[in-house]
Amino acid sequence: MTGPAELLRDFVNTYDVEGDADELASPAELSVWLRERGLIGDDDRAADEDLAVATQLREGLRAALRGNHDGGPYEVPEGLDAALAGLPVRVTLSAGTPALDPVGSGVAGGLARLAALIPAAHADGTWSRLKVCAESTCQWAFIDSSKNRSRSWCSMRVCGNRTKTRAYRARRQAEGTPRPS
């Protein structure tokens, strides 16, 4: 079973910043994505408005996850706040366990279920480990599994190396040392 952080990560990663590839480029693709994850029923179909909310939610989450790098307080990104405000949920108690449940059904309900994963990830301790790659050209979401929660890049071999190489070159150039050919 996929946990809340994994599903949120997968949702954010439906847009590949580096490759400019969007898995949710149409309402039909949004419907398929939500259906495959059990967030909507077989007969539910997304409309253009649903896609706009989903995109706003996804990019708002990406912005919020940038704040998980420093561990300090940060403001909820405006786009995320607006998307969440349009996805009404209610608090329920089932067998004494509080949960957030969507007020509506269909695609809006599926997006509300996705939004309800935010406090669920916080409750299980994975929200603070959910980050986006610090490499500005990447922004891929990942779950920081390092012991001290200090991971900055989705991949040290690719994005970490790019960042460190750029920093090295900038230091060398600032020192006036010619770069090797």
Topology:
Layout: H1 4-12, E1 15-16, E2 21-22, H2 27-36, H3 48-66, H4 78-85, E3 89-94, E4 97-102, H5 106-115, H6 117-123, E5 130-132, E6 141-143, H7 156-175
Antiparallel strand pairs: 1-2, 3-4, 5-6
InterPro entries: ABATE, ABATE_dom_sf, Znf_CGNR
Domain Zinc finger CGNR: 129-172
Protein name: Zinc finger CGNR domain-containing protein
Can you put this structure into words, describing what you see?
The chain is of the alpha+beta class. The protein has helices at residues 4-12, 27-36, 48-66, 78-85, 106-115, 117-123, 156-175, and strands spanning 15-16, 21-22, 89-94, 97-102, 130-132, 141-143. It has a two-stranded antiparallel sheet with strand order 1-2. Strands 3-4 form a two-stranded antiparallel ribbon. Strands 5-6 form a two-stranded antiparallel ribbon. A hairpin with an 8-residue loop joins strand 5 (130-132) and strand 6 (141-143). 30% of the residues are buried.
